[in-house]
Amino acid sequence: MYYYDIKRKVFISYYHGDQEAVNKFVRDFGDVFIPKTVGVKDGDFDFVSNNPEYIMRRIREEKLGDSTVTIVLIGECTHSRRYVDWEIKASLQQGQSLPNGLIAINLPYMGIRGNLPHRLDLNIQRNQYNMDIGYARYYAYPLSKEELKKWIEDAHQARTCRSNRINNPNDMMHYNGKCIVHGVTH
User: Fold this and answer.
1) Tens digit of each residue's pLDDT (9 = 90 or more) over 131-174
2) Contact at 8 Å (CB) between 154 and 161?
3) Distance between CA atoms of 181 and 178, rounded to whole angstroms?
4) Are the C-beta atoms of residues 25 and 140 closer than 8 Å to each other?
5) CA 80 to CA 179: how far, in whole Å?
6) Residues paired with residue 9 on neighbouring β-strands, in sequence order
7) Alpha helices in 7-81 (DSSP H)
8) Smallest Cα–Cα separation from 140: which of 175, 104, 178?
């Protein structure tokens, strides 16, 4: 069996304001992977605790489930959402299980560059030759299913071959931040 025959379980992290574009992504590419999503809305993360380890464990157990790759779909305000930050943090945690592979993909209306969540940006590094050297990868919207399959498989392999490059500071967003694009907190 070749990697392109395997359908990985992929957790989709996103800002609920982009729900239509996220639904289209899952419709267009859902046969490439097994999608796992959470309808992010107020009250969806009712983990009452000041203990970051507890919160991250609960997100991994109850939200990320048995996924092995996390795709963060980047829209105008994704960078400012605390739940996206928490999902990325939980995806990158190492210990009793391997971390999730991590991919950032711009939604089509974003073009080739967007504002990344800080924790995600810390894991996307390029050298002076513009070659990827960090743990995560950042792409514009996929042009084909085959292209997306390759990205997902690369992220899945990163769990073992690039995990030493993970940068996952302990601080977490306590509140949604101000959206750089709109100048408000949504």
Assistant:
1) 889 999 999 999 999 999 999 999 999 999 999 999 999 898 98
2) no
3) 9
4) no
5) 5
6) 34
7) 19-29, 52-59
8) 104
